[in-house]
Amino acid sequence: MALRRRHQVPVGEALLGRVIDGLGRPLDGRELPEVCWKDYDAMPPPAMVRRPITQPLMTGIRAIDSVATCGEGQRVGIFSAPGVGKSTLLAMLCNAPGADINVLVLIGERGREVREFIDFTLDEETRKRCVIVVATSDRPALERVRALFVATTIAEFFRDDGKRVVLLADSLTRYARAAREIALAAGETAVSGAYPPGVFSTLPRLLERTGMGEKGSITAFYTVLVEGDDMNEPLADEVRSLLDGHIVLSRRLAEMGHYPAIDVLATLSRVFPVVTSHGHRQLAITLRRHLALYQEVELLIRIGEYQRGVDIAADKAIDTYPNICTFLRQNKDEVCGPELLIEKLQQILTE
Q1: Which residues of 70-95 are buried (b: 16+ CB within 10 A; e: fewer)?
Q2: Ranges under pLDDT 50 in the chain
């Protein structure tokens, strides 16, 4: 019998610490207590209702907070090939000191990885302020698609309640693949990068639902899997154009044991100039310049052809490079506060 009503999602404080599936049903063996219900496919807030992004949201990760500081209410893409440390970075972002609530959605992951991520990667305190939505790779395509809508709806509830919410979605690529599966079954024709037009038409409306609201905010991090480290494939290119910044993970850095494997030179936050001080921006520019200069002369250094004294700026970049690498590396349980961050930046760049 047709009910003639839209799919609704359970929302409320009672979901904190819980694990639900892509349709909003509990997966942790406990019944849902009294909750509110909201339509899964709400409209994004009007542009003139949104407050502007003016405050930083510190993640506690030095490689991000130093040169690509995120703003409260920003939407960021994490672009990564498989096996480069994406899940570990997400766990570190769950500990962001500027967040009141975390909503984590895992789409198309293996069941083993989901259980390990929840039990071993997230600590108990983090889980208490986290809602986890899971749609594993064996679930129907419709459930994998709905999982991201469910997580976004839950995040919207907490934002409307005045909370600072961090939404972590892993991954937008697997959401798009599930949407492609549905669209092709419905008779749509694949066009750009084997994706039907409907996949790209739904992305802007879904991503626009996050961001600043009248009272609270949703700072969103969406992971995007890139094939063969190709940052210009159609889906990655489209997502990058819709978001307010991107974090790029480097396979080369991961192979060197440099974690988090964030490629600082390829990483960008579009709100960085708005949410940082003049002194912070100057330090970030200097760090980027040193890294870029070192990359230019790295081959000459390795083959023994570099001559000191010819380029003073390059000499300085070479001298500071080991300290910069040490600064950018970080254990997953380590959180760096903003005061200590600036102090360390000044120390390594002025020695």
Answers
A1: bbbbbbbbbbbbeebbbbebbbbbbb
A2: 1
- Alpha helices in 68-123, H assignment, sequence order: 86-94, 111-116
Residue 254 CA to residue 135 CA, distance in Å, equals: 27
The helices-and-strands tally (H runs, E runs) of the chain is 13, 11
Domain with CATH 1.20.1270.330 in the chain: 278-350
What is residue 189's predicted lDDT score, i.e. its pLDDT? 81
| pLDDT score, position 5 | 64
Report cis status (omega within 30 of 0) of the bond before 33.
Answer: no
Cis link prior to 137 (omega < 30° from 0)?
Answer: no
pLDDT digits (tens, 9 = 90+) for 258-298: 999 999 999 999 999 999 999 999 999 999 999 999 999 99
Tell me the C-alpha distance between 131 and 16, whole Å: 5
Which residues does 90 contact at the CB level (< 8 Å), separation at least 6?
A: 78, 104, 168, 170, 221, 223
215 close to 160: Cβ distance less than 8 angstroms: yes
Whole-model pTM: value is 0.93
Q: Span 8-272: which CATH code?
A: 3.40.50.300
Helix segments in the chain, DSSP class H = 62-67, 86-94, 111-116, 124-128, 141-160, 172-185, 197-208, 234-242, 251-255, 272-275, 278-302, 312-328, 338-350
Looking at the domain 278-350, which fold is it?
Substrate Binding Domain Of Dnak; Chain:A; Domain 2 (1.20.1270)
Domain with CATH 3.40.50.300 in the chain: 8-272
* Average pLDDT of the residues of the chain: 90
Q: For 221-255, how does the pLDDT look when each residue is reduced to its tens digit (9 = 90+)?
A: 999 998 766 777 888 999 999 999 999 999 999 99
Minimal CA–CA distance to 224: which of 1, 346, 33, 75?
A: 75
Helix axes 234-242, 197-208, angle to 10 degrees: 30
Rounded Cα distance between 44 and 156, Å, is 10
